[in-house]
Every structure is written in structure tokens, then in C-alpha cells.
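Sanity check. The docking grid for 4AD depends on where the pocket ends up, so I'm generating a full predicted complex first rather than guessing from homology. Inputs follow.
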Amino acid sequence: MTPPPWVFIDLLTQYVGQTVELRGWLYTRRSSGGIHFLLVRDGTGVVQAVINAKEVDAATFDRADHLPQESSLILTGAVRSDKRAPGGVEVTVRALVVLQEADPYPITPKEHGVEFLMDHRHLWLRSPRQHAIMRVRAEVIRAATAYLDAQGFLRVDAPILTPASVEGTTTLFETAYFDLGTAYLTQSGQLYNEAAAMAFGRVYCYGPTFRAEKSKTRRHLTEFWMLEPEVAYLDLDGYMDLAEGFVSAIVQDVLRNRERELALLERDLAPLRGVKPPFPRISYDEALEILKRAGKPMPWGEDFGGDEETVISSHFDRPVFVHHYPAACKAFYMQPDATRPAVVLAADLLAPEGYGEIIGGGQRIHDLALLEHRLAEYGLPRDIYRWYLDLRRYGAVPHSGFGIGIERTVAWICGLDHIREAIPFPRLINRLYP
Ligand code: 4AD
Ligand code: MG
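Predicted complex below; grid placement will be based on this.
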């Protein structure tokens, strides 16, 4: 006789009437009148396994009665259709093998503090809420890359160990690098992306990025994942057109494919449904006006903090672009406006509902002399950027791109209070464990 097939719980409905093998962990159990009801999870879902004293041997029945939460087990049983069951099916157990009887599980149904849960992040990931968030995260990444792939972008990844900064020298993580001195963990793949865009026209990179951010806020990680498209011959408006189509596609894909997860997170779907082009576009100067009218004036020339972003975005029902920032509050590579050089062709995208900046980007300087001038102004060593300057020597063209922070996007779409839940193992100024 062939052994029963190993089946994942999310596919059980295709096996009604058959005997299957499930491999998973015990989620919860209860007993009543000579029957044990085990809720078993395998990562794809949860199913109720019914153990009837009359259908299994006494040892198995007894074992199931004492099994602690999260014990690992393999069970064999018949799949029955049951309208009242969560996934529409139930399994009647014939045999049960316990691989490991778990120690008392630290995460119980009672409320735990955030620090306790963060210390047990390696176990917390097993809970339904974290499952929902990680599934949304995976869908955000899938949807984002699928959108760009379908438009003919080429994925060209950037290095993580680099000799120079992209986004200012104050947030660099350093590491010793053999005889070559100091290497830095990348803050953004952008500079290498620009080389790739000159090679392939339309590219994107995706990977972890690092910022030694001294900020302890609900929006800052020290390690986060960024997806960065870069396009030759694209200007500021073209970048905003690309980004609004991109963000809308991501949100609509999550709504379509992760409905169950958003429901579990009790996410209000109405604001997400409205995320469709066109997104409002306001200038930095107009944003300052909004702040002034809201009684939170800010001097011209400074970048917005989280509080300002929340006030600005609260005036709009979908993500809003803020463009034409003062040069002084942006990075060295930003292309100045031709008619007003004090501002640059940069635009940030602010998410609604107080989630702040999810995208930063803009048009890059393509003129060699101007870029050399800017490097000097920002006190950056010209020698390290030789290769980057070369891109302005061999077929320079206007070009633009942006970076979307995956965790900020996930926090917004899931409606999370804090970015720490949007990444499997968060790295924060005060957390490196687990
Ligand atoms: O605005 P940023 O710094 O832009 C860049 O790095 C550009 N070089 C990208 C490009 O044009 N290719 O970062 C981009 C996005 C932010 O909008 C935000 O979503 C996210 O990265 N981000 C962070 N996310 C979590 N924690 C942090 N400390 C973050 N810093 C930036
Ligand atoms: Mg930014």
C-alpha cells in the first residue's frame, strides 16, 4: 500500500474523502466526551484534527491529552468536509507521531508586553497576526517586482559593501575591510543603479539597506529593505507618473490577493481601495502653506519630520507627492530646477493616514561640472566617486529614479502602529536580538 500523501493544510479541500499525512505543530487543543480536538498548524493554515478514543489506540489517545502547545507532530487521517470548520474541512485522525513534546510555550493567549514579544520574535512569528503581516509583506514585494518586470525593467542588484555614502555621511555603518581600510554598509543602491540604467535603460535593484539612524521612532529601522527603480531619459514628472502607477498596483494586488490577512488585521479597506492614480502633487512651498494654516509653521529650507508629514498627508485621501524641495535638505545628487536653482527636482511620496514618507526620489544631476561642484560642497571625496562621475562623461542623459521602503509600505497597508512588526527580525537602535 502506498503511504498517504503529505498535504499542506491550505490544499486540504482538494483531498476530501482521502487519507493524508499532515506535518505541523499543535496550536491549541480541547477535549470533550472522549474526543480530543487538536488545532494543528503547518504554516499554510490551521485545521481541526479530531481524535476519537474509539478510533485510535489508547497510547495515542492518552498522548494527545497531554500534548503541549507547539509540539511538533505528524498525523495521518481522513479529510472530511465540514461547513462549520474554519477551512471547510476537518481531519479524523488515525495515527499520530509526536516528534518533539514542546517545553511550556512562552507566548500564551494572555496579553504580553511589546518588549517581551520582541525578545521572542523567533516564536512570535508563528502567531496568526504575524502570519498575516508577513504574507502581506511577501505580496507587496511580489507585486512590486511583477509590476516592473511586466513593464520591461531589468533587475540589476547593487552591492551592499561600498566605499562611499549615498544619503549623507552621518548615518553610515562602518566595517573594517582588509587592506583597503573602511567599508560602509549601503544606504541605498541608487548610485550603482544609475550605472545600470545607463547600461540597460530601465532597471531596479532590491535588497537590504542600512542607516545608523539615531532616531527612535515608529518609522525608523537601522536595516530595512528598499526597492529602487532607475530610468534613463526620465524627468521628475515621469518619475511621479511611474511611482503612482507602481504604488497603486501594489495596493490593488494586496487587496485582491490578501483579503483574508487584511481582515484578520482589522484593516479598514476603504482608504486602500481609493489608492488609484492620479495622486495629488504639491510643491514644498505649498506644503509649508498647509503647515502654516494648520498652526504648525516651519521655516523654509528644513526637511519635514514625521509630525509634519502627518499633517500634510491628512489633507489628502490618497498618497501625495511633495516636490521641489530646497536643495539644502536633500542629497548631493539632486538636479536643481533650471529656473530656481535653490530648489531641486526631488519628490517624496507621503502615505495617507499618518504613515509618512514611503518613497524618496527625483531627477539626478547629469552635468559633470555641476556634480563635481556639488561633491565639493557636500565635502565628499571626489576620488571615491570617480566611477560615478564617469557616468556623466560617457553619454550623460537626464535620468530619474526612486526608492520605496518596503517596511514603511507594509506598515501603512497593514495599518500597523509601529514599523517593527513589518519586518521578520527588526533591527532598531536598541535592538539586535534575536
Ligand atoms: O528617501 P531615502 O533616503 O531615498 C534614498 O535612499 C534614495 N537614494 C532612493 C532612490 O532614489 N533610489 O529612502 C527611500 C525610502 C524612504 O522613503 C523610506 O520609505 C525608506 O526608504 N526609509 C526607511 N525605512 C525604514 N527605516 C529607515 N530608517 C528608513 N530610511 C528610509
Ligand atoms: Mg527621504
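Relevant for the grid: Residues 160 and 186 are 5 Å apart (CA to CA).
Also worth noting: The mean pLDDT is 97.
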